[in-house]
């Protein structure tokens, strides 16, 4: 439309009419003469509006879903990371508790035997030299470790140091077939020699073939000259079987070691032996045998019924 005098007058007239209709509608309220035309317009345009809304709503919902799925995915990933972190913390906490327990046992054993030790961690286990049963620990000559030092853990004798490097050492385990250590029986003091048998119990030959031994008796190290390679009094194991060897000058025993060689973690190298032989002081106190379970009393049998004696009178 051209910008002419007539078009301007028409625009002013339309605006005036619009204001007039708005005023009439507001003042009329529910009786407004425009309600009819408004309803008619709603009837015509309402379905179109609903249809357009029906078409647009799935698109909007899809966009919202994509947005929410992205945020939910982020939250899920964050929760998974938190869960993994918690698992790691729990595992680390369990390891710390386990290490603290092992260290407590190790220090307790060293204190009971008056051994001066240097604690070490096992960093490798296996046949590291000539297919021997060995472990590698994380201390060496830089820490004052020397060949033929006794190695213990919180349960007893682990082995002896065979090879020393500046920062690591190799330990020959007591279950190695070439391992031999002098032993002393608890109580009787009978002396023998224990030899490693791999996965099987150690074999001990007592020098006294007539020694009085029973299953469950315990042994400790006898000690070596100048305390190398073995200091005295370290728990070795307990007797599980007495081998019948008639006519032999010695007595053969099978002994289960106190140490679990496949689960070694923290160990101690004895760098200074005790001033005196601790004998059996390092062995844990013997556990009292369980009290017998009292048996239920046996019900007594009923007494047999007897006949009452009648006192017969004499006739005069």
Automatic annotation (TrEMBL):
Annotated region described as Disordered, given as residue ranges: 276-316
Keywords: Cell shape
Biological processes, Gene Ontology terms: regulation of cell shape
Keyword Transmembrane: no
Protein's job: Involved in formation and maintenance of cell shape.
NCBIfam families given in the database record: mreC, PRK13922.11-5
Identification of the protein by name: Cell shape-determining protein MreC
């Amino acid at each position: 439309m051209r910008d002419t005098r007539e078009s301007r007058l028409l625009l002013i007239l339309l605006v005036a009419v619009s204001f007039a209709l708005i005023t009439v509608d507001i003042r009329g309220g529910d009786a407004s003469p425009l309600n009819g035309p408004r309803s008619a317009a709603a009837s015509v345009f309402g379905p179109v509006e609903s249809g357009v809304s029906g078409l647009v709503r799935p698109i909007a919902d899809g966009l919202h879903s994509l947005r929410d799925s992205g945020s939910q995915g982020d939250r899920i990933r964050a929760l998974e990371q938190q869960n993994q972190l918690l698992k790691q913390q729990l595992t680390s906490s369990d390891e710390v508790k386990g290490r603290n327990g092992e260290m407590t046992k190790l220090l307790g054993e060293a204190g009971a035997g008056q051994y001066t030790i240097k604690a070490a961690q096992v960093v490798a286990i296996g046949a590291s030299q000539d297919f021997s049963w060995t472990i590698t620990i994380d201390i060496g000559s830089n820490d004052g470790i020397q060949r033929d030092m006794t190695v213990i853990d919180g349960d007893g004798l682990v082995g002896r140091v065979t090879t020393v490097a500046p920062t690591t050492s190799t330990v020959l385990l007591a279950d190695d077939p070439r391992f031999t250590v002098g032993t002393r029986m608890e109580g009787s003091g009978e002396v023998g020699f224990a030899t490693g048998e791999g996965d099987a119990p150690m074999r001990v030959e007592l020098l006294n073939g007539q020694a009085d031994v029973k299953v469950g008796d315990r042994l400790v190290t006898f000690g070596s000259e100048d305390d190398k390679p073995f200091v005295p009094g370290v728990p070795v194991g307990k007797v599980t079987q007495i081998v019948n060897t008639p006519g032999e000058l010695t007595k053969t025993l099978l002994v289960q070691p106190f140490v679990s060689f496949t689960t070694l973690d923290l160990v101690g190298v004895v760098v200074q032996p005790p001033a005196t032989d601790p004998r059996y002081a390092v062995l844990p106190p013997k556990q009292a045998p369980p009290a017998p379970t009292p048996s239920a009393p046996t019900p007594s049998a009923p007494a047999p019924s007897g006949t009452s004696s009648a006192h017969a009178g004499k006739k005069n």
